[in-house]
């Protein structure tokens, strides 16, 4: 006899219980409010369609998050196959659960006061976002997936159909271009 708890689905409560959580999870990965809402809605629809596949081994929320992750990956895959047809912008967070990683070679110096730090962090974030947007589409996508969103190398390679060595070449080139852009637009100002 198994002591493992078997979870059940309650789709009538999904919007009330999980929409905020799923939206917050999504917005940190796609930064377009409308796109985030659409992906959450698609997740609920996909969940309804595949309820018969739910085995009860994971909680409802965990199951919905796994569906949402696939929706986000599918979104990036679609962008990759339709270069230039869509643009995705990513938020860059400086702290908390959504923290992005800074380019290792260029960590900024500490600032003197908190007010100056907040102003300069906002300016730095804006400059970095502009520099990321200037990257070629594939570089931008791979850089965001690996560095900001924290996807695993194998997952990125599988989803974008590239080799791991190609991924690391793209990451290196993206960082080199970002360093140059940041030096021109932030550090030398």
UniProtKB/TrEMBL annotation:
<comment type="similarity">
    <text>Belongs to the sigma-70 factor family. ECF subfamily.</text>
</comment>
<dbReference type="InterPro" id="IPR013249">
    <property type="entry name" value="RNA_pol_sigma70_r4_t2"/>
</dbReference>
<feature type="domain" description="RNA polymerase sigma factor 70 region 4 type 2">
    <location>
        <begin position="126"/>
        <end position="178"/>
    </location>
</feature>
<dbReference type="Pfam" id="PF08281">
    <property type="entry name" value="Sigma70_r4_2"/>
</dbReference>
<keyword id="KW-0804">Transcription</keyword>
<dbReference type="InterPro" id="IPR036388">
    <property type="entry name" value="WH-like_DNA-bd_sf"/>
</dbReference>
<dbReference type="InterPro" id="IPR014284">
    <property type="entry name" value="RNA_pol_sigma-70_dom"/>
</dbReference>
<dbReference type="Pfam" id="PF04542">
    <property type="entry name" value="Sigma70_r2"/>
</dbReference>
<keyword id="KW-0805">Transcription regulation</keyword>
<feature type="domain" description="RNA polymerase sigma-70 region 2">
    <location>
        <begin position="15"/>
        <end position="78"/>
    </location>
</feature>
<dbReference type="InterPro" id="IPR013324">
    <property type="entry name" value="RNA_pol_sigma_r3/r4-like"/>
</dbReference>
<protein>
    <submittedName>
        <fullName>Sigma-70 family RNA polymerase sigma factor</fullName>
    </submittedName>
</protein>
<keyword id="KW-0238">DNA-binding</keyword>
<keyword id="KW-0731">Sigma factor</keyword>
<dbReference type="InterPro" id="IPR039425">
    <property type="entry name" value="RNA_pol_sigma-70-like"/>
</dbReference>
<dbReference type="InterPro" id="IPR007627">
    <property type="entry name" value="RNA_pol_sigma70_r2"/>
</dbReference>
<dbReference type="InterPro" id="IPR013325">
    <property type="entry name" value="RNA_pol_sigma_r2"/>
</dbReference>
């Amino acid at each position: 006899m198994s002591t493992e708890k078997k979870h059940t689905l309650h789709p009538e409560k999904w919007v009330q219980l999980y929409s905020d959580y799923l939206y917050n999870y999504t917005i940190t990965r796609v930064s377009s409010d409308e796109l985030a809402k659409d992906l959450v809605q698609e997740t609920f629809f996909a969940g309804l369609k595949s309820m018969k596949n739910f085995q009860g081994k994971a909680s409802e929320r965990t199951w919905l998050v796994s569906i949402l992750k696939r929706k986000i990956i599918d979104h990036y895959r679609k962008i990759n196959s339709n270069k230039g047809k869509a643009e995705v912008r990513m938020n860059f967070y400086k702290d908390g659960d959504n923290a992005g990683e800074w380019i290792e070679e260029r960590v900024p110096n500490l600032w003197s006061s908190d007010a100056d730090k907040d102003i300069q962090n906002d300016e730095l974030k804006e400059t970095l976002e502009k520099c990321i947007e200037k990257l070629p589409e594939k570089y931008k996508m791979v850089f965001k997936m690996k560095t900001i969103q924290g996807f695993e190398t194998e997952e990125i390679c599988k989803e974008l159909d590239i080799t791991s060595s190609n991924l690391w070449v793209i990451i290196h080139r993206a960082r080199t271009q970002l360093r140059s852009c940041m030096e021109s637009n932030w550090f030398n100002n």
